[in-house]
User: Fold this.
Amino acid sequence: MFEPTQLQEVAEGKKAYEAAVEKVLTKGPERKANFTTGGGIPLKRTYTPEDVNGVDYAKDLGFPGVYPYTRGVQPTMYRGRFWTMRQYAGFATAEDSNKRYRYLLSQGTTGLSVAFDLPTQIGYDSDDPMAVGECGKVGVAIDSLADAEILFDGIPLDKVSTSMTINAPASILLAMYIAVAEKQGVPMNALAGTIQNDILKEYIARGTYIFPPKPSMRLITDIFDFCSRNIPKWNTISISGYHIREAGSTAIQEVAFTLADGIAYIEAAIKAGQDPNVFGKRLSFFFNAHNDFLEEVAKFRAARKVWAHIMKERFGVTNPSAQMLRFHTQTAGCTLTAQQAENNIVRVAIQTMAAVCGGTQSLHTNSLDEALALPTDKSVRIALRTQQIVAYESGITNVVDPLAGSYAIEALTKEIEEGALAYIKEIDDLGGMMAAIEKGYPQKHIQDAAYDYQKSIESEDRIIVGVNKFHIDEDMTERKLLKVDASVGENQIKKLREMKEKRDNVRVKTTLDAVREGAKGDANLMPLILDAVHAYATEGEICGVLREVFGEYKENVVL
Amino acid sequence: MDRKIRVVVAKPGLDGHDRGAKVIARAFRDAGMEVIYTGLRQTPEQIVNTAIQEDADAIGISILSGAHDYCFKTIINLLKEKHADDIIVFGGGVIPETDYPTLLGYGAGAIFGPGTPTSETIEWLEKAVAEKRAKEAK
Assistant:
């Protein structure tokens, strides 16, 4: 990037600088002997043109909207329009959640993001013995199309895009969404949104799996195929590093394991006879935004570049929109503290700026009380306002990829790229991500990183304001928190039983039998599941049939 | 102490967030305890049975799903039914402090909120087990 004579000047200048540093150091040491990023990448005292000397502008960076997309996926980014402000929400019943969505839309969110309760995420109806105590707690309980109709009541599905955090039973919830839209008169090809549908990270980090890997991968590739034909604007998967990071990974591991999961999905779909130039356009990603601002900005840039390379070089993808890594970001829940919870507003603001400087397409900001409970109306509003302040007031959004060319950012981008590629190579050597997961490889690396992180807090090598430094005595029982009433479960069960009495149970049986037969063969399961959903078969019933055929996954515990 | 402390680290219910459970399990192990980690999706019955079979001194429950009231109550009642309520029950996770008195009222020994150093939990458990064993020796 620089002329040899310029670099010569830098080298000479650096000698003088280092002499000055030596002199300062004789008067007193720096705060620490070694500085690293949050993820442990060693940091130099300062970065100079020498650190970016290996960077080839055209090859490594290019322009925004141009391969390898290091600088962003669109030429104009937020000068055109802001990212989608999409707050993850859902609790208690479909009615309660519908009310929260309408509130969020009235306050300026531009997309919905549905949080389902754990029974729904794991394919149990609210009256299942496994669901006791869990109904409506961390998300909304959706048992059948009847609940989905209430959930989206009065929300125009042709205008709002919806993201659904649903993985193992993604086909069923997508089918319910399609069916609700039909009732609103919206055809499927007009729908926009995302289903998470990323099962590999469930085995690695999040735990809401149902079936073993092989049939799970089939459900995913069936969705790719169905959506490519019928819902062209739908993001068929959100390959998620977020949970890998929340489980304790470093930034480099987050990029590496997420992209390695992506490779596994692409290989599975190609094996099923699909074209990566087509389904590749509808792959989306989901990353975490942690506190270490510089490292996070570099992480997003590196992830885009590595993915573009993988698509082009490894899979021969020629369609530019199938080479781009588009992503949603969520600020890091695991960085929020119960102590002096108001400080979380500041953490979220820093993380928001990192996501925006890193070029995210969509963002969820966490609420200040999330280390304690689900957010209240007020706390979620502050979280949304944080995004709006960064968007409208900070000025960051007026320049595309504003931190490009910073010696430190470019050097870190390169380091994260190289670190991620080294992990991906190891995973390839193990036989790919599915084999690596079976061997506990990503799990072990993440747990080691999580344990190191905890130890660094306890040794006070890592400072968490309000926790291991600057703490105060506070009465945390005074805080106003959202409480989900215990009667939610009982009411939901009552509603479910009434619905089952009213529906055409012969039709339910016929459609469930068809799903069972389909699962035994190799037909695309999406249309069969859609029929069952139309008949008001419940999620638990459909998953039950699939469990009969596919079996259930048993966790490989790695400590 | 002659016999090492045996502790079951349990993930009840459907909650898959096991970072805290795994970190505390390793911290207990590094502190010289014998740790049995249950893995995910354990019912209260399974957790209680594991603790009895393993002759555990204590059960540490990690829960972030909001189902803590049901889980603590059921586990502690089951221990009573099986005459195994000498086993200490404690826990942590995303649990609002306003709920602590209820859980302690069921018979939980302690609840550790987010941000608790592992050393604090270890010290507490060592002391609680020492007291329990002293009582049993009488």
